[in-house]
Write a structure and sequence with these properties.
- The chain is an alpha/beta fold and about 130 residues long.
- Helix content is about 35%, strand content about 30%.
- It contains three helices and six strands, in the order H-E-E-H-E-E-H-E-E.
- It has helices at about 1-20, 45-55, 95-105; strands at about 25-30, 35-40, 65-70, 75-80, 115-120, 125-129.
- It has a six-stranded mixed β-sheet with strand order 1-2-3-4-5-6, covered by helices on one side.
- It is globular and about 35 Å long.
Length: about 130
Amino acid sequence: MKKVLTGLFFIIAVIAYFIFSSSSYGEKLEFNGTDVYYTDLVTETDAQKLGEYLVESEFADGNGKSVQLTKRDSTYLFRMVVIDGVTEDSTKDISFKALAMLISMQVFDDAPVELEACSNTFETLRVYK
């Protein structure tokens, strides 16, 4: 009986580890203070290229930021945590659209990229195409 309970506790511990250690945001890479999460719909290589570009472009500037890379059909989704209220400021629209265009050209060989402005839990607030 003691072996059964020990085995059961071990199995529960392993399951709990996987549940609590995995993020629903995907796997995570870090680039100069910027967390780049990526889902299983893209490759780690895609996320690595994005992170390197974010450093090169000085987006990843040592200040804490979080982004997520995923895909819908053939469109890359660059999901970025933004501060409250920024999506209501239409003067930022052109900057967000330009960033999506630059990521498309510089990182993903002109594949379509949409930028999604998100809350700190990656809830989509606004989409920039």
